[in-house]
Amino acid sequence: MEILESSIFDLSPIPMWLEDYSEIKKQFDVWKDQGITDLKKFLQDDISRVTECAHKIKIIKVNKKTLDVFEANNINHLCQNLNTIFQGDMFHSHILELVSLWEGKTEFSSTTINYTISGKPLDIKLRGVILPGSEHTFKQILLTTEDITDYQNASRLEEKNRRLAEARFIYSPTSLWVEDFSRVKMRMDQLRHIGIEDFRTFLDVHADFVHQCVEDILLLDVNQATLDLLKAPDKDTLFKNLNKVFAKEMHQTFREQLIELWNGKIHHQREAINYALDGSMRNVLLQFTVFPGYEEDWGLVQVALTDITARKKAESYLEYLGKHDVLTKLFNRSFYTEELNRLERGIVRPVSAIFIDMNGLKEINDTRGHDVGDDLLRRMGNILSRTVSHSNYTASRIGGDEFVVLMPGADAQTLDSMMMTIEELLNIDNQYYSSHPIRIAMGHATTFEGENVECMLKRADQVMYQKKKDYYDYIMEKAEG
Prior knowledge:
alpha+beta; 14 strands; 52% helix
């Protein structure tokens, strides 16, 4: 088996490198002990750290293709010219590889530029995988450096193009579907024949046409990435459970696809939602194309699904961060400002507000530490979240220890009830955390007839600051007496 594996390595048509990253693993451990958490920023702050890591990599062996591509006579010749081969933008892509390993990933990839020993630039796609048994030491990492330029040139040759197309389909990391849309084409042609011109209106009237077209599609093949994406053990299981993959959201997406095809756009893309067989949702970027030579009947089309679930979650989280305070989970000052502008422009009246300031938080931070202070803030955030839940009211953290509850449509009586709720929840919380009670100053106001929201807020703020002053005056008197 070892001889066979060595033969596969040596005869591989793709440059392959077996490298030892164990010194990088040791460097990672040192940095983690020093408290480094954001490796990407740490490396970008000082690019020499990337160079330092690159010099710690040991080349164990390479295959013949590697020597040919980089114009090396042997491995020693190759190693003596690494500064020529790896230069320029390579170090920026190397950061991404290091970050992947830092985060515990066993695979990584990047696109960069390498150079042959004679100085010829090579656009390459680098892929790396930690070999089994080396996950904790990085002792053996297998890398491939695919020359994209040669790939494009080779693809012009018909025989190589066929083989590459097959390999790309089978081993592609993107979910690929090969389908027959010819019956969909015939159904659309029949509509044109009977004089239908406004296809969108036709679909509005005949919603069942979309379902009929779905039934007309013949699924010919999918690749392994599709099975992985949709958690299917094999193609047969996937084909028998397509109703689980294409839920109700898919029909709206497919409706828009049909409109694109009606308008002659046989190459198009859009975001869609599919479901894996375990029920988990997949956000995908769907790319549809009719294969060359099948433009007249759509007998062979390819659908590529790129999993963008992580990206969508990241976008949602970034959107969340744009409006929320991470510590308390309440809305932040940015949202609060927008909400004020909306209420000021709106016609809903009265509007009430509650201003809250936590007493003694700075002293707690100074004497007991910020962790204790942060815990108090989280508790306050939880109290306010529970207070405004199941209502159209909002609670925002607008400063270090300042909070505001905005209550559109709430009169003075409703405002009093809300303040009682806050006090009740605060008392319950303080009983549970009796060693670290929360003390607050609370001001409130409701808009008068014809009063704008800004003036009302100033009144509420003044009440709050007066109560805060009274609290500290009381503390002072108690200390002196």
